Amino acid sequence: MSAGQEYPTLPEGLQPMDDQVAGHAFFDTADSVGLLKSSDDASILKPAGKLLCGLREIKFYEQIQAATTEPDLVPLRDIIPQYLGHMKLPVAGKTYEFIKLSDLTHGMLEPCIMDVKIGCRTWDPQASEEKRKAEESKYQACKQNLGFCIPGFQVYSIANGRRMRYGKDYGKKLTEVTVKDAFRKFLNADSGLCRQLLMQFLSDLWTIQKWARTQTTFRLYSSSVLLVYDARRLKPVLQYQSKSLSSSSSKLTASCNTGSGPLTGTGTSSTSSSPIGGPSSSPGTPTTGGDIEPLQHYFKIQRSHSAFNNYEEDMKAIRENYVFMRDNLVGSYETKVWACARMIDFAHAFPAEEATVDTNYLHGVDCLVKIFEDFLRDCELENSPKAGVP
């Protein structure tokens, strides 16, 4: 809501969600209704929108909630917000249908939120020709090359202490190249890429990717992946990461100056060298004691992304080792998850007419995962002790 506009008349305990980054918000048009936030519990109320779209989204959530053994449905519970029902409420004298969902930002002091709309095609089979052409013309550079676009995001900047908001006008200008700058803004990368933040996002993104690679039940149009983290929790983790890097660099410099250790190339240590010059370990095997070897984990991630290797087995190993990797990447400072990625917006979820993978959705998810894997590699290179050694 812009300055000077009054809040609409709402039921007690509800207020407009100030952190909404995409979709219709209050006062976008004369009678538009946006997300509502409950002060009574950790939930939000999403307007069900147009009649058919609202009914379709409610049916989607209820279908997932009722699932018991269906392999395409049950896994979705871990990668969508919790569905808490639907209800009709009066807003500014009119009655609207709302879908009640868990609030992914609950408890966050500085919630950073990004909406990533997935798919080259964002119009559903029932869209009019006018709607199809309008959707085709929006976010073309990103959608055609990457299979996704960014309608909006907000970030609490660690550098300047302010909340920065970027809307659809910013997103429409993004290209295959500049979209990475948008992600870096969102990740507060000017203060340093954070291993723990990237690993938390990738853990969820890999789960979404795994589901998208196998499911044949749905065709998702104009659905999004919502990325959420707390900048207040990011700050001390970056500080810890910086101190650890400084300490490791000092030790490595001292080792190189004395000519000892395997990194000099003349030592007699039994530790073998990895392809990048650091200590090696068995793929997927955590190191015990000392600093974790994050690049070893990165190479395992890359193998899991390759179609020429056993993706499912590698994915299983990565998931089993995730908690260990996350905790060791930040030491003992904080282990509670404070970032997540969730699938949202199912008003245009249609049943698949053929038992095939939704390639439109999968392409966008694959490209999104690849960008975050590349950021993880950048992070490991930036934070490698060798990077600071002359």
UniProtKB/TrEMBL annotation:
Reactions listed under catalytic activity: 1D-myo-inositol 1,4,5-trisphosphate + 2 ATP = 1D-myo-inositol 1,3,4,5,6-pentakisphosphate + 2 ADP + 2 H(+); 1D-myo-inositol 1,3,4,6-tetrakisphosphate + ATP = 1D-myo-inositol 1,3,4,5,6-pentakisphosphate + ADP + H(+)
Q: Which UniProt keywords apply?
A: ATP-binding, Kinase, Nucleotide-binding, Transferase
Listed Gene3D superfamilies: Inositol polyphosphate kinase
Q: Where are the transmembrane segments?
A: none
Q: Which InterPro entries match?
A: IPK, IPK_sf
Residues annotated as coiled-coil are: none
Instruction: Give the Pfam families listed for this entry.
Output: IPK (PF03770)
The segments labelled Disordered in the record are 256-289
Sorted alphabetically, which SUPFAM superfamilies does this protein's record hold? SAICAR synthase-like
The broad enzyme category this protein falls into is transferase
Domain of life of the source: Eukaryota
What EC number(s) has UniProt assigned to this enzyme?
Answer: 2.7.-.-
Which protein family is it in? Belongs to the inositol phosphokinase (IPK) family.
Protein name as it appears in the record = Kinase
Q: Which organism is it from?
A: Aedes albopictus
